[in-house]
Amino acid sequence: MYYLYILKCADKTLYTGITTDLKRRVVEHNYSKLGAKYTSARRPVKLIYSKRFKNRSNAAKEEVRIKKLNRIQKLEEIKNI
Question: What distance in Å separates the CA atoms of residue 49 and residue 32, rounded to the nearest whole number?
Fold first, then answer.
C-alpha cells in the first residue's frame, strides 16, 4: 500500500508526498533529519489529508496532479472529500 498525503506546515503552507508508512513519515517530517528539507524549516507539521493506493505508480500520478494545483484548489479538494 502507498499513501498520498498532504501536510499543513507551521507557516500554513502545504506539503504533498507519498509513502508506504504514513505514521512513520509524519514523525520523520516533525522530528527527524529524514523528513523533507522543506518541512524541516516549517515544523511542526500536521497531517490534513491522506489517500491509500494499491501501488506506487498510481500514488505518484496523483501526487503529480495534486502538486500542480494551487493552494486554494488543494484545500477545496480536501474539503470535498
Answer: 21
Predicted model pTM: 0.94
* Domain 2-80 class, CATH top level: alpha beta
C-alpha cell of residue 78? 480536501
Q: How many residues does the structure list for the chain?
A: 81
For 19-48, how does the pLDDT look when each residue is reduced to its tens digit (9 = 90+)? 999 999 999 999 999 999 999 999 999 999
Spatial separation of the C-alpha atoms in residues 73 and 80, rounded to whole Å: 11
Supply 10's cell numbers.
507551521
What does the domain layout of the chain look like in residue ranges?
Answer: 2-80
Cα distance between residue 1 and residue 45, in whole Å: 23
Compute φ and ψ for 46, nearest 5 degrees: -130, 135
21 with 2: CB under 8 angstroms?
A: no
Q: 3-state DSSP call for residue 21? A: coil
